[in-house]
Amino acid sequence: MFSDKNSHTTVDGLNQKFRINKVIENGKERTKVNVIGETDPASLGDEILIKINVDPVVAMIFSGNDTKEPATQSFKDRLRLYADNYEQDEKIIIPVGKHCKDCEFRCTNEDWAKGLKSGYRECWKDQKKWADSDFEKPSVFTLWNFRGNDKLLEEGKYFLTDLERDDIGHDRSPSIGLQAGGRRFDSYIAHTPKPIPAKAGIFIWSEFPSKACFCKETNGK
Predict the structure, then answer these.
(1) Separation of alpha carbons 39 and 29, rounded Å
(2) Residue 82 host element (H or E)
(3) Cα distance from N-terminal residue to C-terminal residue, the chain
């Protein structure tokens, strides 16, 4: 059961019926709720709690798909781990990786400046020691339709400026049009100020680093 943030209480002072206190039990601080007064339906008014179906979450834990690596603990032990961490308000550390690309716990730079929190920033700061300025750099997650992020991250290549052309592929061909590697390469060029040496298959105008075209190497030149 969870509180329904869209509902309104129909009883004044409802919060005063439930006093939350911190107590010490067996050397540990625990949270206790003291109920004051009547708690029958008439005294509590309209329901402000809603039921949430957690079957999908339970099934995920039961099948061992709640962690990146295969679960080594039993289903019961995993549930106890989550319950204990929630009760003690302790973060469960999940190693950063390609899954961070779709992280929902983000905020914009403007919201961050206003003091809002970002779980995405917390993870990368804690685990990879990123500075605030690093989050303004184009990361490897910005590469279009790219599936090699895990390899790049394992090699410590987090930003587009860390990459070489061979890291992302650069297939272009006049006969079959722009390939996936070429599209990624366009994104790479657009966000990477460092000079890129021209090789067979790609020609880059030094005056216009965001432009590239297909060419062939001739006589070793």
Answers:
(1) 27
(2) helix 75-87
(3) 71
Q: Is 119 exposed, middle or buried (0-12, 13-18, 19+ CB in 10 A)?
A: middle
Contacts of residue 215, defined as CB under 8 A and 6 or more positions apart, other chains included, come to: 200, 201, 202, 203
Check if the beta carbon of residue 190 is closer than 8 Å to that of residue 196: no
Quick one: which H or E segment has residue 46? none
Amino acid residing at 192: T
Q: The pTM is what?
A: 0.53
What tokens appear for 126 in the block? Answer: 């804690």
CB burial of residue 117 (10 Å; 0-12, 13-18, 19+): exposed
Find out whether 22 and 30 touch, Cβ atoms under 8 Å. yes
Please report the pLDDT score of residue 129 as a whole number: 94
**Identity at 7, one-letter amino acid code:** S
State whether residue 139 is helix, strand or coil: strand
**Half-sphere CA count of 85, side-chain side, radius 13 A:** 10
Whether the pLDDT of residue 84 is over 90: the answer is yes
**Residue 198: per-residue pLDDT:** 40
pLDDT, one tens digit per residue, over 163-199 is 887 887 655 444 444 455 455 555 555 555 544 444 4
Give which of 152, 58, 162 is closest to 96, Cα–Cα: 152
Average pLDDT, the chain: 77
Report whether 36 contacts 18 (CB < 8 A).
yes
Which residues are CB-contacts of 220 (< 8 A; sequence separation ≥ 6)?
A: none
Distance CA 204, CA 215 (A): 10
